[in-house]
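Reading a protein record of the kind used here takes little practice once its layout is understood. The reader may check this reading against the record printed directly beneath this paragraph.
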Amino acid sequence: MTIASSSPPSRLPLGGAEGARTTPRTQRAGAGESRGDGRLAAVFLAPALLGFAVFLLWPTLRGVYLSFTRFNLLTPAEWVGLDNYVRMVNDPIFWNSLAVTVEYVLINIGVQTVAALAIAVLLQRLTQSALLRGIVLTPYLMSNVVAGLVWLWILDTQLGIGNEILAAVGVDRIPFLADEAWAIPTIALINVWRHVGYTALLLFAGLQAIPNDMYEAARVDGASEWRMFWRITMPLLRPVLAVVLIMTVIGSFQVFDTVAVTTAGGPANATNVLQYYIYGSAFGRFQFGYASAMSVALLVVLSAITVLQYRLTRAGRTDLG
């Protein structure tokens, strides 16, 4: 008797069949989750985007438009084309204000960067006390107006405690804020005093990211502290230092508060920085079109400086492995 052999029914591999059935569903689920995440992200970003549009984007576009008009708040804006920019190019006070601002920026950035870097290195190498970091940051918690008023009283030529100390040690009184040669350096150093702690803490955070193994290996090879600073600390701190420089340069070009409460642009326009001149043109002489043209020029200058700094300092690249 012959027994017919029956072969088992052919089946697709279990994994293949299930994969064929579940892959489209999984893809649909993944796409749905992505859309859900996108909606949730849009909800969280909406307040910030609204604030950006209302308080930054719209005023910027409005300012660019007004820079081509003659506008004084009392009458409708009158289109004048490039007249405001031609006036700006031929305005000696504008160029003086720009030169004064550049002088302030150079003093402020130079002294602040060196001092902040020294403080950050000392905090990292000698002590990492949270209390000491808090003390270093204390001046930054004070507003620019308060800091300006405090130093205005301290440096007063007749009654200021600073000049009283100079007189007590036999040094002639110095009109720090009333002399053309002293005014801008004094204002720059006032702002250095206020901001150096914050800048130092930013650099201190960058120093914390440098591995200690590199310093230990350098010590084994006999490297001095000074050599380790230039060969290890500075190259590896470069991206953070570059970002800090970009931030401080932008902030320095926008100096206004300290000048307004200490010298009001004097003496003889010696401290009439660009922001203060723009403010005076707009709210003192109601020349909003001309003030807008100078603001646009400042925006272009800051944008160019920022791009140049970013490229020269290679802020987007790091030497860490």
The two ends are 79 Å apart (CA to CA). The beta strands are 69-70, 78-79. The first helix runs from residue 14 to 66. DSSP finds twelve helices and two strands in the chain.
